[in-house]
Amino acid sequence: MSEGLPARKAALALVSSVLTRRKPLDTELPQMKAMPPRDAAFARAMASQTLRHYGALDAVLRKFLKKPLSPHKSGAAMEILLLGACELLVLKTPAHAAVDAGNRLAAADPKAVHFKPLINAVLRKLADDGAAIFSNLDRERLCAPDWLWQRWSTQFDPQTARQIARAHQSEAPLDIMLRSADAVQPQSNALFGLARRVTDEARVEELPGFAQGGWWVQDAAATLPATLLGDVRGKTVIDLCAAPGGKTLQLAAAGATVTAVDLDAVRLSRVEANLKRTGLEATLAVSDALDFDGKADGVLVDAPCSATGTIRRHPDLPWIKEAGDALNMAVKALEILEAGACMVNPGGLLVFAVCSLDKEEGEEQVRLFLDRNPEFARAPISADEVFGRAEWLTEDGDLRTLPFQLDGGMDGFFAARFKKVLEAP
Predict the structure, then answer these.
(1) Does the annotation mark 355 as catalytic?
(2) Which helix (H) or strand (E) holds 417?
(3) Of 128, 274, 365, 369, whose Cβ has the fewest other Cβ atoms within 10 Å?
């Protein structure tokens, strides 16, 4: 099992960082760049699946542990057990390999080594009896922290909460946005507009059309906010908080003169790279959205948020966020929305979007914005503008997508559109 040990050690470091230090998984992945691609992919898969099923795996393990393990005394013992449980119950690794891997990881940890007999015994019992227990758990409920489950149940309803949690049990598919209908593209299924769902299993950089710049990676739901600005040919558009850049590329491909604004120079450099690869043009500005000075016919604000609509692709989020994060992010988002409002030309459109399932970050923001900015009126979205999908619209005419919608799922997004009808007082 020594061949897979480096990948398992990397996975253990990732899971421990998320669960003990509440570090986002994506920020920890760069440390694996020196690893062989196969090992890095295996480590990421192990860590992602362990976090995706964390609540249920933890519940199974506690049936075999007399008392919780203290991290101060046991080091990474609990994370080693979680990885072993994931291998046995989710990844279906042969029992001898999963148990041996757990023993080797324990032997390499100065504190967990003292718990090696316990780790060995628990994993062996798990190999014999764990599958039956795991299959009978309410995994959807267990894999959603109490604070998230309560908010979904209250803000939507218990049935919708369960559908959301069920969608999070599966990995997000690979969606792309075509530059044009005739672009070179990989094997994929049409979703709506120029959005497609890839069925080819090759690495992104090796897929047909990538090198030619025919498409870029973008979740289907994330393509919708930019379309709400309507026909942008020949118009000026400011894309605030633009990175990673999918919406900038969309708007440029649709014929707009785009200025992409983002505070993070590194992330904005990736937008620049994608513009170069696709042959599209936009002006890039490294700036805080609150300080940017500009005017445009349309402004798109993809505001910072708790990102709970993206849990399928970020399974660490439920375990590093907490209830207060949505409110804290909403305060910042409203500031950026109002800054963006000052950039809209008379008669122009303002689109506000967040990849959050929380209504404090969506519907409540719209209410506050309209109360404070009488020069803007809501411009309701019609079903025709979202490809006939009336189920994606709220009663007020805003966009609200949920992770279980669309065959194979999509990100949870909220978006609202406003028209500037008066000059600001």
Answers:
(1) yes
(2) strand 413-420
(3) 128
